[in-house]
DNA sequence: AAGACTAATCGTAATATTGCGATACGATAA
DNA sequence: TTATCGTATCGCAATATTACGATTAGTCTT
């Protein structure tokens, strides 16, 4: 075992979990924050920014791309990344909804 | 290797990543939604609700407890769980802030 | 005390993630 | 063309996560 039994859960539950998984590494948070801070296409300087090896950085970028949170465009020799605002807002909305389900929670125990 | 190099990143980045990690499994999402839906102490019936083995369910509950999102009280023979509203709202706020950092994002690529 | 029930923990196996060196691949520069 | 630069991918090793049977520990009932 070790594989998540995703068939036991609803699509919505799997979706939320997968979104969380995309955010579940500080390097990916750092990448996203950096792209947000720049608020523009960022070409090339992500490896130096993170302090991880080039291969590792590339892998995190790939996961963020698969999650849809970022998009990359080939710009001559290098690649430019930026936030995908549409998916970003989707994440914001879905995770926000998940949390606002409990606005008036009772602390019972 | 295989261990996250958390020393490379800020406390805030590690915190967000750890929050996301707590949510990064559909079973834990299901547990939280169930507790939210009931909006009360839930004693015992979580194992049947999930469809996972008792040991597995207990492990997910433990992780949610470590993350602070839920709290359990021993109620006679069984244990009652409910949302910890304080931590829940913290999660809501911190993740919400993370996403609102990019309200007016430019889609450049 | 003995049995039944609930939940936590232990031990283990399967799978996933993280990290990086090496390599490959495409674009630009010489 | 050849060299160089930037990035993606491959292959591997280390660690983490997920899942569950078995056991343990506690409470309640009889």
TrEMBL record, chains A, B:
<keyword id="KW-0804">Transcription</keyword>
<dbReference type="InterPro" id="IPR011991">
    <property type="entry name" value="ArsR-like_HTH"/>
</dbReference>
<dbReference type="GO" id="GO:0003677">
    <property type="term" value="F:DNA binding"/>
</dbReference>
<protein>
    <submittedName>
        <fullName>DNA-binding transcriptional regulator, ArsR family</fullName>
    </submittedName>
</protein>
<keyword id="KW-0238">DNA-binding</keyword>
<feature type="domain" description="HTH arsR-type">
    <location>
        <begin position="8"/>
        <end position="103"/>
    </location>
</feature>
<dbReference type="InterPro" id="IPR036390">
    <property type="entry name" value="WH_DNA-bd_sf"/>
</dbReference>
<dbReference type="InterPro" id="IPR036388">
    <property type="entry name" value="WH-like_DNA-bd_sf"/>
</dbReference>
<dbReference type="InterPro" id="IPR051081">
    <property type="entry name" value="HTH_MetalResp_TranReg"/>
</dbReference>
<dbReference type="InterPro" id="IPR001845">
    <property type="entry name" value="HTH_ArsR_DNA-bd_dom"/>
</dbReference>
<keyword id="KW-0805">Transcription regulation</keyword>
<dbReference type="GO" id="GO:0003700">
    <property type="term" value="F:DNA-binding transcription factor activity"/>
</dbReference>
<dbReference type="Pfam" id="PF01022">
    <property type="entry name" value="HTH_5"/>
</dbReference>
């Amino acid at each position: 075992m070790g594989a998540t039994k995703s068939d036991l859960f609803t699509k919505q539950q799997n979706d939320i979990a997968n979104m969380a998984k995309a955010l579940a590494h500080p390097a990916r948070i750092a990448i996203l924050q950096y792209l947000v801070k720049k608020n523009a296409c960022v070409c090339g300087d992500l490896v130096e920014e993170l302090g991880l090896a080039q291969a590792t950085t590339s892998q995190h970028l790939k996961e963020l791309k698969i999650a849809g949170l970022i998009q990359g465009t080939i710009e001559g020799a290098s690649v430019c990344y930026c936030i995908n605002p549409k998916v970003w807002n989707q994440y914001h909305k879905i995770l926000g909804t998940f949390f606002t389900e409990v606005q008036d929670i009772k602390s019972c125990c």
